[in-house]
Specification:
rod-shaped; 5 domains; 12 strands; single chain; three-stranded antiparallel β-sheet; alpha+beta; 2 helices
């Protein structure tokens, strides 16, 4: 193995020497004929100089990059890469670009341009100052969109805060009553008793009295039986004649 390496090294040295000598000769000839009619001058040496430079840089194929070019690169075609930063970062892969000695792996990802009204890269259809809401049903609140975050992460965000449940049934309609608490509806002789029970669902749940109001059914507008019909004849305890009149909504008296 060492004999082979030594032989290859000597061959490279001979090649470099020949190329270097050719380049020097071309330069000298160019200087000598610079003033001769029809001569290209020193410019004629440019291809040989370029050839020498290319040979010196790319003579060892093991030092070429994966695309076959002379520029060193640790990346492989197909390897994942990214461009941009934060919310504007995009993902791509390394692809071979250029040709010949100039070929090299290049990332094909393009950084994302800002896409919202606050200058960030999170897409948003909303504008700062636009009305918004949070929560649902009885727990909904109103707010406005405002710019939050900074740089690539800036975006319009609704500043409304949903209401927290505020009654014993888990809803957002305020109530001081507790499920099972006694309650009543109606008045005077038409009052009826009941208890508070949870009604509704989710945000709209609330304690509601289950008592049903009584419908008036007597001639005085109340809900109690009457001794007699208002306006009908009656007799006082002392025997004097009179007529029944309403005394409130629950009774009649003889007058």
């Amino acid at each position: 193995m060492s004999v082979r390496l030594e032989r290859e090294s000597r061959q490279r040295c001979v090649l470099f020497g020949l190329l270097f000598a050719a380049a020097l000769s071309a330069l000298a000839c160019g200087d000598a004929t610079a003033d001769s009619p029809g001569s290209a001058g020193a410019a004629g040496a440019a291809p040989e100089v370029a050839l020498l430079s290319s040979a010196l840089r790319c003579s060892n194929r093991s030092q070429r990059n994966p695309c076959g070019g002379c520029r060193p690169s640790r990346h492989q075609p197909g390897e994942l890469c990214s461009a941009g930063s934060g919310a504007c970062a995009t993902i791509g892969t390394y692809q071979c670009t250029g040709s010949g000695d100039a070929a090299e792996p290049t990332c094909n990802a393009e950084p994302q341009a800002p896409s919202n009204a606050c200058g960030g890269c999170f897409p948003s259809p909303h504008q700062p100052g636009e009305l918004c809401s949070a929560g649902s049903g009885a727990c909904v609140t109103i707010g406005t969109y405002r710019c939050t975050g900074s740089g690539e992460s800036a975006e319009p965000t609704c500043d409304a805060e949903p209401l927290s449940p505020s009654n014993a049934c888990g809803g957002c309609l305020p109530s001081r009553h507790q499920p099972g608490e006694l309650c009543s509806v109606g008045s005077n002789s038409c009052v009826s008793l009941g208890v508070y029970r949870c009604t509704g669902h989710d945000d709209s749940a609330e304690p509601t009295c289950d008592a049903e109001p009584l419908s008036p059914y007597n001639a005085c507008g109340g809900c109690a039986p009457l001794e007699g019909a208002p306006g009908s004849a009656c007799t006082h305890p002392n025997g004097r004649a009179g007529i029944y009149v309403c005394e409130g909504d629950a009774e009649v008296v003889c007058r």
